[in-house]
Amino acid sequence: MKDLVETFLESMTTLTLNKMRTGLAILGIVIGIGSVIALISLGQASQQAVTNQIQSLGANLLTIQPSAQSSGGVRGAAGGGTTLTLDDAKAIASAPQITTIDAVSAELTRRAQVVAGRNNTNTQIAGVDATYQQIRKIDMASGNFISSTNDATIGRVAVLGPTVVSNLFGDNANPIGQFIRVNGQSLRVIGVTVSKGGTGFNNQDDIIYVPLSTAQKLLFGVDYLSSIAVEAKTSDVMTQAEDQIGYFLLARHKISDPTQADFSIFSQSDILNTASQITGTFTTLLGGIAAISLLVGGIGIMNIMLVTVTERTREIGLRKALGAKKQTIIRQFLIEAIILTFTGGIIGMIIGIGISYVLSLVMSLPFTVSSSAIVLAIGVSGAIGIVFGWYPAQKAAGLQPIEALRYE
Amino acid sequence: MLSVKHISKIYKTGVIETAALSDVSFEIDKGEFVAIMGPSGSGKSTLMHILGVLDMPTSGTYILDGQEVSKLTDDEAADVRNRKIGFIFQAFNLLPRTTTLQNVMLPMRYAEVPEKEREARAKKYLEMVGLGDRLNHTSNQISGGQQQRVAIARALSMDPAILLADEPTGNIASTQAEEVMEIFQQLNDKGHTIVMITHEPDIASHAKRIIHVKDGKIIKDEKIKQYRIKKQIVKV
After folding, report:
1. How many Cα atoms occupy the beta-carbon half-sphere of B169 within 13 Å?
2. Do residues A90 and A30 both lie within one domain?
3. Which residues of B touch A (CB under 8 A)?
4. What pTM was estimated for this model as a whole?
5. Does A319 sit within 8 Å of B93, measured CB to CB?
6. Domain that holds residue A101
7. What ipTM score was computed for the predicted complex, to two decimals?
8. Residues A154 and A209 grouped into a single domain
9. Are B139 and B147 a contacting pair, CB within 8 Å?
10. Domains by residue range for chain B, with CATH
11. Is A312 in the same domain as A363?
């Protein structure tokens, strides 16, 4: 033990005396470990960013729509039915046997002509309740979303999507407090949503939200719903939630044959599939990045250790000539390699985390530090550093001292 | 002190065998100062390596200070080198960027001499070779002659049975070479046994006995008369 302490102190002295050599070796290890940590963390941050975006589209969302009516051989468009009511939505939300859902939102969506001043546009009017914002993950650019009070009081208020704002009020205008006219009714604008970037038919920015009660009673004069959105607890219980809601609604609508159901349930299975594909691609990508950076870092560490130890073959020869035993020399070089990789590992870890922090700021990604990357980087690079500090040392220590002394 | 009997060293390169030494025998008594001379390729370096237990003979026996040392394991050989042989190399072979004191302490570190005693002994020997004021200079801050004197202090530090010098003046200026040889003679006067390899007759003339080697054999073994002016370099 005392000898070990002495070898350690001696190694520290040797390392501090040869600042250039020590500095280069540590730099090699720092770059090796730092780049692995930075790359993997960056990869994971990107993965998380993509996952977040998918989540924001509502990956665990179920949509219930009335089935197309088939009376007299004429089949209407899907969603055109009148079989879903607000009571259905309330019943689903409060049913004790439906255990896998978090929130329910009833919606009535129609297209209508909207006028504001001299401008007019044809857009989607969505009558929604307050939970809609939570379920559809709608963020407000300014003002407020429809509240439950608005809904309860048949409030004459509206929340506009950004496309509608620019169509009716011009770009960068602030419409809050202004009035729009829909089907002869005047509504006050109370909020503007953040752009979600949808396109074409399903443009989530080209929409006007009004309280559900306002849409049903004031604007369109109907008492049914066009859809009910249900948020499942997690994306893993989607199938279960679909079954529970399906059986519940069949019973409620007194339908015994599931093929005759007057509603249909859609899950965002496309989104989920895409999500899992993207996640899978990212996992593969991350594995590749990790493997390549470990390889590059490892080779860098290997080179610097091989060079610095091989350079000292003559020194090893001298030490043997003066009476050092093979084990003494191997232990000294092993301890030096451990000190180098440990120091380099700590610095590399700090720099790697620092780089991923800066990159996350610059590239506006979530900042994640991958603990598995740290373990992997320090484990693999540390092992490489120690092995390639030890291997040439034990080779040189095994030489006859004269061969080592003559080594050029 | 040391006795070499029928020593041979054969190097194999593929199927070709080269005898670097063939059937060499001689004895060196305690207190002798022997120079081993010969042209390059004569086998004198091989002989030096075997005498220094840096290499093992192919056949024959070598008894050093009463111990048979011709068939040792790596670690046993390291121990014998550490305790019985003081090396002085042509290229000095000091640890770079390390102080003279640390360099002299190195063999004692491997012998596990307690640290306080190490330092005291290293100081004593460095003072003996006239470098008492250079204890904390690193080897690249002192001249070649001074480096070789550090090496001599290092060789003395374990109080070895023999001092083994391989072309000790080969890399230093001639005035400093004289100083180094003066130290050798004074150490010899104090009873140290010295074996020195050289190809320079001037340097060999400082010894009391010259063994001439050629083609792996001893061709002449002569005692020589000493004539020299003593200079007081070694104190104590």
Report:
1. 22
2. no
3. 49, 52, 54-55, 74-75, 78-79, 81-83, 87, 89, 93, 95, 97-98, 102, 106-107, 109-112, 115, 154, 158
4. 0.67
5. no
6. 61-267
7. 0.90
8. yes
9. yes
10. 30-57+67-223 (3.40.50.300)
11. yes
